[in-house]
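Sat 14:20. Reprocessing the chain from the morning session after the first attempt stalled halfway. Input below, unchanged.
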Amino acid sequence: MISMFSFAPACLFGSGMASISWGATRHPDTGLKTLGAALLVAATSLAATPALADQFVEAADNAKIDCTLSRDELTRIALVGDEFSSVSKIASGYPYNDFGVTHEPVRGDIYISVPPSFAANSLSFFATSKQGFVYKFVCHTAPVEAHQLFVTNPALAKPEAETWENERSEDQTIIALIKAMAESATPPGYSVYQRMMRPVRTGDIEVQLITEYRGAGFNAQQFILTNRGKTEIKLNEAELAPKSARAISITQNTLKGGTSTSAYVVTATRGAVQ
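Finished this time. Tokens:
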């Protein structure tokens, strides 16, 4: 059995980290096992994100991308680590019944405008990036405020993420990844998704997945843990961690009633060293 241990690396004190617990084997359960299960439920929940939230999509070359476009307002579409080079669409011949595409040359983004008179509830177009990838966008329109769509391509992100991970040992990479999450930073090559899933509750503790990081050898998730009860609760990383976790860090190990803390969970992707 691999024993787990906790310690507080000096580099994490500035980020407010209380400690990190390592390993894939937990101590005997003392009442927080269901909370560890709640982390998994929160991470895999299919609950919808709030209306008007920015959209984050991962797409490979030649992929179909489903999205929502704003009527009356602009929708920005950005390629993470890449830029748009061209957009191909069919013109209706009637300006009042056509959507517009504006290319912003500095960042390489495009802005889609759909007039109120646009008859259809959906539209589609093809886009080519400067890196040579082609995407098919199939979008429905909705009366929502201006928002953004961020598209990440694994073919672009993985090599850079792998380089960043290999610059240090596995333990140092995990520490650096948790530190980046705590500071709302993005490690090179990593894709970041704002999830804001519906909270999952077990006892007095409410668990909500808010951010997911995807790299080459590691994935990570940030959760918000809230004590909805009136009694103080002590959290133990070793008992809280899902079985698949390589490491877990909690900002505050003691939660008074009505207070919240952040939990960071790191897992290895398929093929990573276990």
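Residues 41 and 200 are 7 Å apart (CA to CA).
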